[in-house]
Amino acid sequence: MPPTSTATDRTAARFDGFGEDFPLEVPALHGPSGAGLLGRFADGSMDAFADTLAAVHNCARPVRLAGSSTTVDARTGEVLSTFRTADAPLGVLYRPCGNRRAHVCPACSRTYARDTFALISAGIAGGKTVPEQVADNPLLFATFTAPSFGLVHGHRGGRPCRPRRRDDRTRCPHGRPQWCTAVHEPGDARSGAPLCADCCDVASAVLWQWHAPELWRRTTIALRRAVAAHLGVTESGLGEHASIQYAKVAEYQDRGLVHFHALIRLDGPAAAGIGAPAPAALDGLMFAALVRRPRRV
Ligand SMILES: [Zn+2]
Ligand SMILES: [Zn+2]
Ligand SMILES: [Zn+2]
User: Fold this and answer.
1) Residues surrounding ion ligand 1 at CB below 5 Å
2) Which residues contact 206 (CB under 8 A, 6 or more apart)?
3) Which listed ligand is nearest to 162 at the C-alpha?
4) How far apart are CA 215 and CA 223, in angstroms?
5) Which ligand is located closest to the Cα atom of residue 190?
6) What is the pTM of this model?
């Protein structure tokens, strides 16, 4: 079957975290520190400050380093270069904090988001070190969610939370309603809270959360075995025929449990490199069926 969009189409996908529609709020330029900027104009250190700000890519909380380093040719003992942080524009070496959270550092979180976008985009359509034919390999976007541990409130995109017809409104064994007609907005503190705390199986929820990384690990093992079985090869010999690539993020749901979003791609033999053509005996639909089928490991 021909692909519905070409690799070139998908490479054109844009990262919206930059550009005029998404101006970067640099905290240092607002609020009380703005007065400090005026001081820099007055004492002549504005150029050094601007250079430093550019060097850390506008990081809001750069790490300050002090010290020196000397590079010596191990063979001749010749000093090749020396660096002293005291010689840096502001007398201290600043490095970006690298924090991924936008509320901690708008600039570094964008750099992280952009890099992740480029990485994921290359994994889908090719680019960087990934060949373009990777776009022809089976690729799934799967969400792995915890089971229900009891009814909870939630925002439903402007719709009522848990509506029930009047003649269908039952109460739990503790006498609490199992319906909710409220429309919860995003950020509503009730979102994720149980309709009845006594009905909610909190102990199981905590255990599930604790074991989520191990559950994920076992899921990958099970999928590996399922793919090997489908291809009629041993698990240890799978690498000569196919490899499975993952890009996964964990997100918190309102009820406090993580769920995983994962891109799962089937590649050819590991030795043929990332994005090598996948085995013809396993198409996307069958690959999806193997991911869906639960197994014990
Ligand atoms: Zn930063
Ligand atoms: Zn509700
Ligand atoms: Zn109850």
Assistant:
1) 59, 96-97, 105, 108
2) none
3) 2
4) 12
5) 2
6) 0.71
pLDDT beyond 80 at 25: no
Report the alpha-carbon distance of residue 221 to residue 92 in Å, rounded.
Answer: 48
Q: Please name which ligand lies nearest the alpha carbon of 112.
A: 1
CB 85 within 8 A of CB 65: yes
Residues 222-232: tens digit of each pLDDT: 999 999 999 99
Rounded distance from Cα 198 to ligand 2 centre (Å): 16
For residues 113 and 32, is the Cβ–Cβ distance under 8 A?
no
Q: DSSP string covering 175-213, please?
A: S-BS-B---PPTT-TTTT-BS-TTTS-HHHHHHHHHHHH
In this structure, how many other beta carbons lie within 10 angstroms of the beta carbon of residue 6? 13
Distance of CA 54 from the midpoint of ligand 1 (Å): 12
CA angle 85, 91, 92 (to 5 degrees): 55
Spatial contact of 135 and 7, defined as CB atoms under 8 Å apart = yes
Instruction: Give 79's strand partners.
Output: 72
How many CB atoms neighbour CB 126 within 10 A? 21
pLDDT band, very low/low/confident/very high, at 7 (cuts 50, 70, 90): very low
Q: How long a stretch of residues is the chain?
A: 297
- Containing 258, the helix (H) or strand (E) segment is strand 258-267
Residue type, 210: W
CA of 105 to the centre of ligand 1 (A): 5
What's the average model confidence in pLDDT over 98-110?
Answer: 89
CA of 190 to the centre of ligand 3 (A): 16
Q: Where are the domains of the chain?
A: 9-66+84-111, 137-147+202-292, 152-196
Percent of the chain with pLDDT over 70: 87
Cα(182) to ligand 2 centroid in Å equals: 5
Of residues 217 and 6, the one with the higher pLDDT is 217
DSSP-derived secondary structure letter, 173: T
